[in-house]
Amino acid sequence: MTDQKNLPPAGGSAAVVHGIETLAIHAGQPADPATGAVMTPIVTSATFAQSEPGKPDRFEYSRSGNPTRAALEACVAALEGGRHGFAFASGSAATMSLLHTLRPGDEVISGDDVYGGTFRMLDKVLAPLGVRSRFVDMRQLSSISDAFTDATRLVWLETPTNPTLKLFDIGAVCDIAKRRSVPVVVDNTFASPVLQRPLDFGATAVVHSTTKYINGHSDVVGGMLVTDDDELAERVGFLQNAIGAVPSPIDCYLVLRGIKTLPIRMRRHSESATELARRLEKSPKVARVVYPGLPSHEAYELCRRQMKGPGGMISVELEGGLDAARRFLSSLEIFTLAESLGGVESLAEHPALMTHASVPEPTRQQLGITDGLVRLSVGLEGLEDLWDDLSQALGRIG
Ligand code: P1T
Fold this sequence. Notes:
Elements lengths: L13 H4 L2 H7 L40 H14 L3 E5 L2 H9 L7 E5 L4 H11 L5 E5 L4 H7 L4 E7 L11 H10 L4 E4 L4 H4 L9 E5 L13 E5 L2 H14 L5 H11 L2 H20 L4 E5 L9 H7 L6 E6 L2 H11 L4 E2 L9 E3 L11 H7 L5 E5 L5 H13 L3
Parallel strand pairs: 2-3, 2-4, 4-5, 5-6, 10-11
Antiparallel strand pairs: 1-7, 6-7, 8-9, 9-12, 11-12
Helix pairs in contact: 2-3, 3-10, 4-5, 11-15, 13-15
């Protein structure tokens, strides 16, 4: 395909030359040379004609590669500033495909607060295969150093974390891991590349649940992995094809379409969430508001240094524990009580009973995933409508 806007197929130096708003709309998406179509065609073909046996052209079979998927992979790679992008059927598929680079006897050091499904993968899928995970609070850098053994092969973290919105210093973690030549993978789902680019801080790879902000419209389940490391890219490319957890071309198209507004959406998510967090902090029904954009957040300074905005996620500890949380969540009218996050519509959920139910109770307590904790994904509705909804639901707590 020709690249009429002189944007390279995947990130690298393009991110320096072009702003993220431009990359979101054009990277990997030149006008279609066959038809001039400005929007990337959805190529549903499962297979591609070959002129000679065993000599495929660019595409061969849609599990190993597909034009619509290639456009998405190039675009997200450009946004994250990496040269290699791989799309998957879900964020979990991206994570699991990456974890298949490990062997029995290998060890993972993981941040202690990760999406419940990621914890479940490490604890219930990887551990029985002989890959041990050590979960550490990466706010204490010494706890990372202490967790290294000769068998450590991967450091995994989310920041901001799901659901307690802790921040870890990506550069500092990478410095520690690099001294031992161990790759660092950052799940960047909560921030999106608009607010944070882990590769710029030294991470080896970035993983996304594109189900969330990247697609942004809650109508696709998908995942991505981006890296600048050629060796890792070769391995992940092999696994993407060998395992086959790939997305459909239609889903790839929808995600590409969603990405076009990602920068503008992230700005608005951050602005609305900041204002709602400020107001929630003043409510007598609220024991604690956790939001990296509030000066009361323990990592407020790190947020300003590492992120371009605090994002759209707020966690709120309600006075009155589980009863209060149940009543509050059931009373919401504009916020929908549902798992997931990052869409244009506002969502609310109860991590202990929903997204993080697979994390053992004592661990949840230790992490602060209490019965009174609710998680809000602030969408793009009118700010005052969202505030009215939160206020009336807080009023129902009693
Ligand atoms: O749902 P899936 O696309 O497979 O993505 C998994 C995943 C990975 N990483 C993070 C940080 C996530 O938040 C998720 C999915 N999380 C939810 C469904 C949730 O409501 O938290």
